[in-house]
Known about the structure:
The structure is a single chain. This protein is of the alpha/beta class. Helices cover 46% and strands 14% of the residues. The strands form 2 sheets. Strands 2-3-1-4-7 form a 5-stranded parallel β-sheet, with helices on both faces. A two-stranded antiparallel sheet has the order 5-6. Helix 2 (38-47) crosses helix 3. It is globular, with a radius of gyration of 18 Å. Bound molecules: P1-(5'-adenosyl)-P5-(5'-guanosyl) pentaphosphate. P1-(5'-adenosyl)-P5-(5'-guanosyl) pentaphosphate (G5P) binds at residues 14, 16-22, 38-39, 42, 59-60, 63-66, 71, 91-92, 94, 98, 124, 128, 137, 139, 141-143, 163, 200-202.
Amino acid sequence: RGTMAKLFRTAIMGPPGSGKGTISKRIAQNFGLQYLSSGHFLREGIAANTDAGVLVKGYVERSMLVPDHLMSRLMLPRLEQLTGHSWLLDGFPRTIAQAKALNDICQMDLVISLNIPFETLRERVSDRWIHPASGRVYNMGFNPPQVQGRDDVTGEPLIQHADDRPEALQARLRHYKDVAKPVMNLYKSQGILYQFSGTDTDRIWPYISSLLSTKIPTQPLDTCQPS
Length: 227
Ligand code: G5P
């Protein structure tokens, strides 16, 4: 035990547009965790027309939660391949059934929950554009592309998700609250839930970053000093 780096398993929860993807990328970059995004895997499967992609397409397009057994089948094998790695989950688990399935294969160390006002979510999501092939996300105010309407890397056109329309968003948010509550209660009861509230990702980020600095060893194992 003493000679092995302690693995770190974390997840980020939050309603649509709360900044999970944006914060996850910063966490992955700064703390070297493997990053797994459920939404990205779903969209990738849909774009590539895989068997799983065909099954989930209708749900994702209608902003409905993909059934738990399909989600677990999509996510858990990927995690099982990552034994020996520290990782960060974005968008999974979303329901109590998913959280229990995850609990059966590993114990989480820390869960971040983002608590963002509705009006802020509405503004952000209506300004969001994505590059469908890669899943890269832009926001016309917060992180605009270099050329308007075009992906920075490929130059291909950007699109908006059908499920980012205001009516769809309101329904997603209502539903999010109902299903997230038992998941949050589970992690609260395990003493590993950390909630962050605010309207700006850049203001929330330093708090998350300093929390994680106290929890994740950042130096390589062989140079790690006892603190
Ligand atoms: P996803 O892909 O998990 P959502 O809807 O939960 O999708 P989303 O919309 O991708 O989450 P996010 O990752 O929380 O949002 O946020 P983000 O993309 O980082 O930020 C949102 C926008 O705001 C971006 O444009 C960003 O640049 C901008 N932004 C960030 N911070 C700031 C800021 O401070 N200021 C400003 N102005 N802008 C900012 O799931 C998609 C679908 O897949 C299915 C469901 O159907 C779901 O609808 N699905 C699942 N179904 C069942 N179980 C699961 N576990 C599932 N996971 C996915």
